[in-house]
Amino acid sequence: MISRPVQIQKPNIARWAASGSDISYVHERQGSATPGPEVLVTALVHGNEYSGAIVVAELLASGWHPSCGRVTFAFCNVAAFDRFESAQPDAARFVDEDFNRVWSAARLDSDAQSTELTRARQLRPFVDRATHLLDLHSMHELGAPLLVTGTLQRNIDFAQALQTSSQAIIDSGHADGVRMRDYAAFSDPAGDRIALLLEAGQHWQASSVAVARNTLARFLVASGALTQAEAETTMPPGWLLANTAPPTPVKVTGRVVAQSMDFAFTDAFTGGEVITKAGTTIAHDAGHAVITPHDDCVLVMPSVRQLRPGVTVVRLGQLI
Questions:
Q1: Orientation angle between helical segments 51-61 and 206-223, nearest 10 degrees
Q2: Contact 165, 143 (CB under 8 A)
């Protein structure tokens, strides 16, 4: 059973299956002026994270278009989303494998087959052409919203310039596969492409939808798809919230990987906690203490919802 109250219901996105291309659930909106940015907005990378899908569906239904360039909206892992049931919400995260760990040329060009690889190969041309990517996600646990930037300064600066309450998380990705936001040119130090991953808040909180709306509206302005004045008049009412001084970014310094099913935190951490002293016990794993490796250690997205040996249960970081 879901341990968090469901404040937002699973959206009906069936009307968006047909699109102008041969690829289902992909919709392009062209501005009247060119040149302009090539923006890609993705939702449902994980099938049980549907706050972003709600927002994308709302914007499509509004008839919105950019003033210049092209904005492409993609509902990604629809096969997993279709399997969502409130009694077993985590079972709908993916079908065969995590869609957000397959984004390397080695995986995409391989002979390997899975539901997620098939869909990633369909979407790859849209990802390849994007100059700006906003990947809409949410989190298992209650927590403040985050913008995952990777390690390149241009992404950190872009995230801070959005002036939202989301904290920038600077990390190098995952050991078990490549995320879309780290794919190819997005991670080229000599390039100029922008990619951000939004963790809008807990999956089924209404506030996650509000965060996704505001972030998407601001991202479209910052990318150059439209001006601030145009956003205020053409975006759905209430999407653009007041400017917020963004929190200090956090650089990930390490991670805690569960060694057993006998893992438990010492407190009900929700993320963002700053543990002052190095050597402080934050969890126990099979009778062994898990301690902070340095002073002023920030806990990033602690969660034991999918606990099993080998799973990252919390990332550790420092304010920069």
A1: 60
A2: no
